[in-house]
Design a protein that fits this description.
14-stranded antiparallel beta sheet; Jelly Rolls
């Protein structure tokens, strides 16, 4: 998306939110445009008749995971979930979750395997309706929206599937917590009597709200991870122990917030900075049907390129020199690729090595060093940048965006000494990477591609925008 397409003297040329500019009426009030002939002051009646600029809002959607449930009540009668440990690793733009379940399987259970499922709330928009929206969103099929899936029993991998449809006994009274669920990660547990440890591992992106207000300002809400806790009550005899452990692998622990606050009363912090608390109250039931973790900051961007991150103000800057370890000759539109395009409102940079670009680097030297609040990135080739140039991409935005590889994991090195990792969201919406803990003036930034979201049509990995946020 291109928020300030065609306005080269405005800092917001950094973003590809072209449609939003038109919708929010920004183009008529941004400094740097060609001067219009002077007009007389409008009367109150004329002002009243003028169409009001509207706020534009949309949501970056993500699957919302719940605690595991038995998938066949007739088979699972008598099976107990003795304990459940939920470990949440908070990354910059997604969370990695591990469910460790102690299952007590009695003798006499029928079948070779026992199905246990993780429920997900997920409502991606209809693709055709989404493409017709004023501002389409990135949405993925469920089988691709949940990533990095591994399931195991007693440390041995077991079969799993990502499936859609209602639970077979969704209308049973005990299954009311999952009555509306239609997406599942299902593991097949070998039917052997005794206590066995079932583990689910998976990653999901965060949910974020975006609003464009008529001032104009872009408001990116705080990232949220919602965890549905009520499904744990579907197990026979209840669950004696259910604990959550949260640690920030790419963020500062101080940035994590929790809702509802009732859970916060039982939170403890380990010497290594891991938050841990019981999901269950004294009655053995969850404090609330769900809880929300907010692992990082939202941000606000105004028309002059000023940004507010965690209450601190900085500015998007294109005042830097950049070199790349390799550069592709031309993008799919035939336009030359260049690392200097990262500072502009059009064009792309892509690596040119064989393979998918893992290990390739961008090196930035700031002309005016300062404290780094974050780095704004837009990855991949945006399918909504220029509908007139590529109408097919605009009609099928998710398919078009998936054709070209995008960075997933990056390593950032500041001043040649301080290094941190960041996991990016697979989305054409601008996102920021925040340096945890580092507060020194930054002179140089080196970005290394560690992993990618692989494209369906080419292995070339693209980045459209890279803008440091300097205080």
């Amino acid at each position: 998306m291109d928020l300030m397409n065609g306005l080269p003297r405005v800092n917001l040329t950094a973003m590809r939110l072209a449609t939003l500019i038109w919708l929010a009426g920004i183009a008529c009030c941004v400094p740097g445009m060609a001067a219009e002939p002077q007009q007389k002051e409008q009367t109150a009646a004329e002002k009243a008749d003028r169409p009001r600029q509207q706020e534009i809002s949309f949501q970056c959607i993500a699957p919302v995971p719940g605690l595991p449930v038995p998938m066949d009540l007739t088979q699972a009668d008598g099976i107990r979930l003795n304990a459940l440990d939920v470990t949440v690793s908070l990354k910059q733009h997604q969370a990695f979750l591990i469910y460790t379940c102690a299952l007590d399987i009695p003798r006499g259970i029928r079948g070779k395997t026992i199905s246990v499922g993780v429920p997900f709330q997920y409502e991606p928009p209809d693709e055709q309706a989404n493409a017709a929206r004023q501002e389409p969103i990135r949405s993925l099929p469920f089988t691709k929206a949940v990533q990095d899936v591994v399931t195991s029993v007693d440390d041995l991998k077991c079969d799993f599937s990502l499936v859609e449809g209602r639970h077979l006994q969704a209308d049973a009274p005990s299954m009311f917590p999952i009555a509306g669920i239609t997406h599942w990660l299902v593991a097949q547990v070998p039917n052997k009597a005794g206590i066995h440890v079932l583990t689910f591992q998976f990653s999901v992106p965060y949910t974020q709200d975006v609003a464009i207000t008529p001032e104009p300002k872009v408001h990116m809400g705080e990232p949220r991870l919602t965890l549905l806790t009520s499904p744990v009550i579907t197990w026979t005899g209840g669950t004696p122990r259910a604990v959550v452990n949260v640690y920030s692998s790419e963020m500062t622990n101080q940035s994590v917030k929790l809702d509802p606050s009732a859970d916060a009363k039982s939170i403890m912090t380990t010497p290594k900075g891991v938050y841990t608390w019981s999901l269950l109250g004294a009655d053995g039931r969850p404090y609330a049907p769900s809880l929300v973790l907010t692992p990082g900051p939202g941000w606000v961007l105004d028309k002059d390129g000023r940004m507010t991150v965690r209450g601190e103000r900085g500015v998007l800057t294109d005042q830097y020199d950049v070199t790349a370890s390799s550069t592709l000759d031309r993008d799919p539109y035939g336009v030359p690729c260049s690392p200097d395009n990262l500072k502009k409102s059009s064009g792309y940079w892509a690596e040119s090595v064989s393979g998918d670009g893992q290990g390739e680097t961008l090196e930035i030297r700031l002309r005016k060093p300062g404290r780094l609040l974050g780095i704004m990135l837009e990855t991949g080739i945006s399918p909504v940048t220029d509908p007139e140039k590529d109408s097919e991409a605009r009609r099928h935005p998710n398919i078009a965006y998936s054709m070209f590889s995008r960075p997933k994991g990056i390593q950032v090195t500041l001043n040649g000494t301080y290094t941190f990792d960041a996991t990016l969201r697979d989305d054409w919406t601008p996102q920021i990477v925040v340096p945890p803990y580092y507060r020194q003036p930054v002179h140089t930034i080196k970005i290394r591609i560690n992993s990618i979201y692989r494209g369906t049509g080419t292995s070339d990995t693209y980045i459209g925008i890279l803008k440091p946020i300097i205080q």
